């Protein structure tokens, strides 16, 4: 079993600071992210820190099973009224918000009795919740551990090759704590994601959700044709079409399991609206969905890079330039960088091909090739070579 430091010592400052910056907001705070990413723990940590400065009264509200707890929502409101304390900072923490059918009324009544600090935690239905609240919320989206956070967690445990471990096990916080060799826990987590999506959507098939997610895992980082995907998935009692597949992909996006990266045609300087790739919020899901298949390390590295760029606030695009493809174009605050990934730092042919495709785009923006390992250099053409570990641990870009 891998040794790890206590998860509570891995302070996720980005998110805690986001809550601090929203301290005086009058809007509810919607906390979204895939199941297991640590949403509830982060909110509880923030409230714990706040309680050291103010007298805090926390009112917790959660529905675990919508079919068995149809009347519990009204009871929660009554309980909130009973627990409200006028002389304290009252905070209501609504967990599993996707199961609340009258969330807008729940929030309105909580505000009516004087509760201003409202945290809404949802794993599977963030877009619908925002729409139901007329987008009058502040959203904080929580991603699983970055490699930097993972390294902090394992450093004290004496891990000799931390990145190899991260590549294998991923960054789901509970995976790190529960010994990720335990496949049963990881299967339970993915099943929970699918079951929640099925619970809150009439007629949603758990089986088709799983098959859709598995197909995307096997094709992560590649352009996806919805019609081909529908044909490949349709077999036996699972018959589907491209419109249904598009809907199910949107369910997986709502769950925080995947996100899409659109294509940009650099030769025509225009977006390609019907072409996109999909990546997972944590690469461990790719492995867990395909236990009978080996996911290539390069696919995982590409997924890790896409997630890290998203975590750092970049808008991400896959690039098509005449007959060439560039893995990523990342844009933020007027800055752009082109990124290619290679599977082997010693494979000169692969590196030369990836480099040439970027240099054909004649602009002044930085161009980077990310390789396995931890080396860093620049060549005579100004192309940056950065090891994946250095990229993930560094602050450049």
User: Which structural class do you get from the secondary structure elements?
Assistant: alpha/beta
Biggest sheet strand line-up: 7-6-8-9-10-11-13-12
Uncertain residue ranges: 1-9
Q: Give helix % range.
A: 40-55%
Number of helices: 16
Following the backbone from N to C, one meets helices and strands in this order, namely HEHEHEHEHEHHHHHHHEEHHEEEHEEEH
Largest sheet: 8 strands, mixed
- Silhouette: globular
Count of β-strands: 13
Average pLDDT for all residues: 87
Distance between the termini: 35 Å
Strand content: 15-25%
Rg over alpha carbons: 22 Å
Q: Any idea how many domains? A: 2
Please explain how this structure is put together.
By secondary structure, the chain is α/β, with parallel strands linked by helices. The chain folds into two domains: 7-141, Rossmann fold, CATH 3.40.50; 182-397, no CATH class. Helix content is 41%, strand content 21%. The chain has 16 helices and 13 strands. It has helices at residues 13-21, 39-51, 72-83, 103-112, 126-132, 147-155, 162-169, 173-177, 183-199, 206-218, 226-233, 242-254, 284-289, 297-311, 348-359, 388-393; strands at 29-32, 56-62, 89-95, 117-122, 138-141, 258-265, 270-280, 315-321, 324-332, 335-341, 367-371, 376-378, 384-387. The strands form two sheets. It has an eight-stranded mixed sheet. Strands 2-3-4-1-5 form a five-stranded parallel sheet, sandwiched between helices. A hairpin with a 4-residue loop joins strand 6 (258-265) and strand 7. Mean pLDDT is 87; it is low at 1-9.
């Amino acid at each position: 079993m891998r040794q790890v430091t206590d998860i509570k010592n891995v302070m996720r400052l980005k998110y805690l600071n986001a809550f601090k910056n929203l301290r005086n907001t009058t809007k509810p705070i919607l906390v979204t992210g895939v199941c297991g990413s640590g949403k509830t723990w982060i909110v509880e940590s923030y409230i714990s820190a706040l309680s050291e400065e103010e007298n805090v009264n926390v009112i917790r509200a959660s529905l675990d099973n919508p079919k068995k707890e149809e009347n519990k929502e009204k009871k929660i409101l009554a309980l909130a009224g009973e627990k409200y304390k006028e002389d304290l900072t009252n905070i209501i923490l609504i967990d599993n918000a996707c199961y609340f059918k009258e969330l807008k009324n729940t929030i309105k009544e909580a505000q009516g009795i004087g509760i201003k600090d409202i945290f809404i935690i949802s794993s599977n239905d963030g877009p619908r919740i925002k729409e139901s609240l007329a987008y009058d919320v502040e959203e904080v989206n929580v991603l699983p551990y970055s490699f930097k956070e993972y390294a902090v967690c394992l450093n004290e445990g004496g891990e000799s090759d931390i990145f190899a471990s991260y590549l294998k096990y991923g960054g789901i916080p509970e995976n790190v704590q529960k010994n990720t060799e335990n496949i049963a826990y990881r299967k339970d987590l993915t099943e929970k994601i699918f079951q929640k999506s099925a619970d809150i959507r009439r007629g949603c098939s758990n089986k088709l959700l799983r098959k859709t997610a598995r197909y995307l895992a096997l094709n992560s980082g590649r352009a996806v044709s919805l019609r081909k995907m529908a044909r490949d998935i349709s077999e036996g009692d699972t018959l589907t079409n491209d419109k249904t597949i598009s809907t199910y992909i949107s369910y997986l996006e709502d769950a925080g399991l995947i996100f899409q990266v659109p294509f940009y045609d650099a030769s025509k300087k225009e977006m390609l609206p019907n072409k996109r790739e999909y990546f997972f919020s944590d690469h461990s899901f790719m492995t867990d969905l395909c236990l009978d298949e080996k996911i290539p390390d390069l696919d995982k590295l590409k997924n890790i890079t896409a997630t890290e760029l998203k975590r750092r606030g970049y808008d991400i695009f896959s690039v098509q330039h005449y007959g060439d493809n560039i893995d990523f174009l990342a844009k933020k605050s007027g800055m752009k960088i082109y990124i290619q990934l290679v599977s082997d730092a010693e494979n000169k042919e692969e590196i030369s091909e990836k480099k040439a495709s970027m240099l054909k785009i004649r602009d002044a923006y930085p161009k980077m090739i990310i390789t396995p390992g931890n080396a860093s250099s620049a060549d005579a053409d100004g192309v940056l070579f950065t090891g994946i570990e250095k990229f993930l641990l560094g602050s450049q870009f």
